[in-house]
Write a structure and sequence with these properties.
Elements (H helix, E strand, L loop, with lengths): L1 H13 L1 H21 L14 H12 L9 E7 L9 H15 L4 E5 L13 E8 L8 H16 L3 E6 L11 H17 L2 H29 L3 H31 L4 H28 L7 H32 L27 H11 L1 H16 L7 E2 L11 H13 L7 E6 L6 H13 L4 E4 L3 E2 L5 E8 L6 H21 L2 E5 L1 H35 L3 H26 L15 E2 L2 H29 L4 H28 L7 H33 L8 H6 L10 H4 L7 H7 L1
Length: 737
């Protein structure tokens, strides 16, 4: 592989005009596609195989035209102090609002609070339910504005009015902090390279890669039903790895220049060595992201595949566009250790013979491996302690900031009708195979009334054919509580008994039941997913490092860092530590998809640093250095760059903490902390300590396995002879390779 990539790097360096033109054309094509594509439609959220989804599908069949997936809104009214919603003036205001709401073209129905008895016992709170023909993502802005205007008219009449539900769903915003993250990345690159031009290449290529990836996602959003969160995730990961991959190749190029090589040869060697590490690091990230499909939640699968595609583009850009840009830069890119005239005047800053910080740190670890290992493991173990209290759930309006109308509507409904009113359960009774459907409907209602934590059970509402009915159940507890989850399981247990007695099937659905099923599905998929991703990456790393213990150490180190990162997420988003600093207004359960998502993404990113750092060590070991000295050599050449890459990744991920979307905010924080733990504790401390203790045993591989495995030559041993060639027909060799 090193030989092939070496030729590819030289070819891109020589044919830089063609390479640059190809990438500009791809960016233009993706941009035109995104601009001309129809706007994204409904982003469906389905969880195949779960009871809640089966009930939802059944409603679509048995209740045609009810718009089961249509957006909903609850317009909540509260009377002024001392007044009641039954007062004549307040009643007139509400009915005028209901009339105004019904005039919308996308409105399917509006329930009058007075006709539907939607008034609290004390008479202070009432609500009107609005049902739309389309989903919240498809709802026109004019319909949302009409909803807000109707509420404002009622406020002007003296009532307190808030709006809940998904009708006001908005595209999440990341805020200015994302730009700050990129600015920090730029500063780190300038400090690392000592050159504005060299620092600009990773940023430029990463932005091009993300532009192609996100534009392609936008172009395909309508056809593939991709949500707005998909492009945010792709840009988050694509930007981070794009900068890092380019950083490693530019750094290796400057190191090759410092050894006296010609620029074309240096570009080829940089792509052949660092580029090999980029390929395998990218593969681990792609495996981790595509592996999310095993969860069998379409939305999660699409997010993973889209992000994986952006990572693949980042790898291709690093291998081709970076050497092309290096060709354009010529002598303006200085060898390692030299700064540009603007930042230092072409002088070497270090004193001759003085070891750099990476060398000094690695030498310290090699001398004190046991102490460093114990300190790192104990520290990460302490950070992981909060993970033992992990509570999972999916956000509802109760997790929104108190400044939003959705949250204020949630609080008003809780005040007037009880906390469970915000998370009603819909029980669907399928009596198609029952001889006495009406008896089955009645029996289901009576059985549910006898359960704990039930406040209200509405009478069954049959469909036109009379073979299916819906029953609404109001719990006594809030939607995200364990008590509500127990009630859902209790209704399902009763449903099994009813089925055996009446041949009628009982299914529980609704947003609350859907959230419970998603959490359970994600929990069940975590271990198989972990086994699949870690197993495939373990095999890949065996090929890369030709070792059994090094990949094993990499996997165990990852488990330490991801558990510690989950502990940090629990401490901030569940316990509320530093919540003000992170702008977390409401604490609560950690999102159900967070653990499995962090496992996938963090594993891929952790293997980036493992490949980049340990490949340098193996390269030194293969070329004859003693194991401990190889560790020091690896840090001498790689520590500064890995540190810069980690800081950049943390800065990019931290930029997404400013997002208005709770999921994006939590993912940004979790990934930033995970990179901090993995890069600076696991890879910079635990890895050299373990390799120092293992010595030659770290690179042990059974002879039979050594004969079977392909030799991918990541360390570039084959370039010792190929680098001396000056073949003008490199393009032909590349084709033959």
């Amino acid at each position: 592989m090193a030989t092939f990539l070496y030729k590819l790097g030289r070819l891109a360096f020589r044919r830089r005009h063609f390479v640059a033109l190809v990438w500009v054309a791809l960016l233009t094509l993706a941009g035109v596609g995104a601009a001309s594509a129809p706007p994204a439609g409904s982003t469906s959220f389905s969880i195949p195989g779960t009871e809640a989804q089966k009930a939802f599908d059944l409603l679509e069949q048995r209740y045609p035209g009810m718009s089961a997936d249509g957006a909903t809104a609850r317009v909540v009214f509260k009377a002024p102090d001392g007044g009641k919603m039954t007062d004549k003036a307040n009643k007139a205001t509400v009915r005028e609002t209901v009339k105004e709401l019904r005039s919308g073209s996308e409105v399917a129905s509006v329930a009058d609070p007075y006709a539907g008895h939607a008034i609290s016992k004390d008479g202070s709170v009432a609500y009107a339910s609005v049902k739309y023909k389309v989903s919240g993502m498809e709802l026109e802005d004019s319909a949302k504005d009409a909803l807000k205007d109707a509420a404002q008219d009622a406020r002007d009449a003296g009532l307190t009015v808030e709006i809940g539900g998904d009708a006001l769903t908005a595209t999440p915003e990341t805020g200015s902090s994302e730009v700050i993250g990129i600015a920090i990345a730029a500063v780190v690159l300038v400090i690392t390279f000592g050159s504005l031009l060299a620092a600009g290449f990773p940023l430029l290529t990463a932005i091009i890669g993300v532009g192609i990836g996100v534009s392609t996602i936008s172009a395909l959003a309508s056809a593939l039903d991709l949500g707005s969160t998909t492009s945010i995730l792709a840009s988050m990961i694509g930007l981070a790895v794009g900068i890092d991959y380019a950083l490693f190749i530019v750094s290796r190029y400057r190191a090759e220049l410092a050894e006296g090589r010609e620029r074309e040869d240096a570009a080829g060697r940089a792509v052949g060595t660092a580029g090999s590490a980029v390929v395998f690091a990218g593969l681990t990230v792609v495996i981790a992201l595509v592996g999310l499909s095993v969860v069998n939640i379409p939305m999660l699968t699409k997010m993973g595949v889209a992000a994986a595609g952006t990572v693949a583009v980042a790898v291709l850009i690093a291998l081709t566009l970076i050497p092309a840009l290096l060709g354009y830069a010529g002598r303006r890119i200085k060898p390692a250790g030299e700064k540009s005239r603007l930042l230092g005047g072409g002088r070497t800053p270090k004193k001759p013979g003085r070891p750099n910080m990476g060398t000094r740190w690695a030498s310290f670890v090699v001398r004190r491996p046991v102490a460093v290992l114990l300190l790192g493991v104990i520290g990460l173990g302490a950070a992981a302690i909060p993970a033992a209290s992990l509570e999972l759930g999916l956000p509802d309006d109760g997790s929104q900031p108190v400044s939003t109308t959705q949250r204020r509507a949630y609080d008003l409904l809780s005040e007037g009708f009880g906390p469970g009113f915000n998370g009603p359960l819909m029980v669907v009774v399928d009596a198609k195979d029952s001889d006495h459907p009406k008896t089955a409907f009645t029996k289901v209602g009576d059985e549910i009334k006898g359960l704990k934590d039930v406040v209200t059970v509405t009478p069954a509402t049959p469909n036109k054919t009379g073979d299916t009915a819906t029953i609404t159940v109001i719990p006594d507890s809030k939607p995200s509580s364990a008590t509500t989850e127990d009630l859902v399981h209790a209704i399902r247990d009763k449903g099994a008994d009813i089925t055996s007695a009446t041949d009628a099937k009982v299914l529980v659905t609704g947003s609350t039941a859907m959230n419970i099923d998603v959490s359970q599905k994600l929990n069940d998929a975590l271990l198989p997913y972990l086994a699949l991703v870690v197993g495939l990456a373990f095999l890949l790393l065996i090929v890369v490092f030709r070792s059994i213990l090094v990949p094993l150490k990499a996997a165990l180190g990852f488990l330490l860092s991801v558990t510690a990162a989950l502990g940090a997420v629990v401490a901030v988003f569940q316990w509320g530590w530093l919540s003000g600093l992170m702008n977390v207004e409401e604490t609560g359960p950690v999102m159900s998809m967070m653990p499995i998502f962090m496992v996938g993404v963090v594993f891929g990113l952790a293997m980036d640093y493992e490949v980049f750092l340990v490949t340098r060590m193996r390269e030194a070991f293969v070329h004859g250095e003693r194991p401990q000295q190889a560790v020091v050599t690896g840090f001498k050449h790689g520590a500064r760059v890995v540190t810069a890459a980690a800081v950049i990744m943390m800065a990019v991920f931290s930029g997404f903490i400013g997002s208005s979307e709770a999921m994006v905010k939590m993912i940004g924080f979790g990934l930033a902390v995970a990179v901090l733990f993995d890069a600076f504790v696991v890879r910079m401390a635990i890895v050299p300590a373990v390799l120092s203790l293992l010595g030659k045993r770290a690179w042990w591989l059974p002879k039979w396995l050594d004969r079977v495995l392909p030799n991918v030559d990541v360390e570039g041993d084959g370039l010792r002879t190929d680098a001396d060639r000056r073949d003008p027909d490199g393009e032909k060799e590349l084709v033959r390779a």
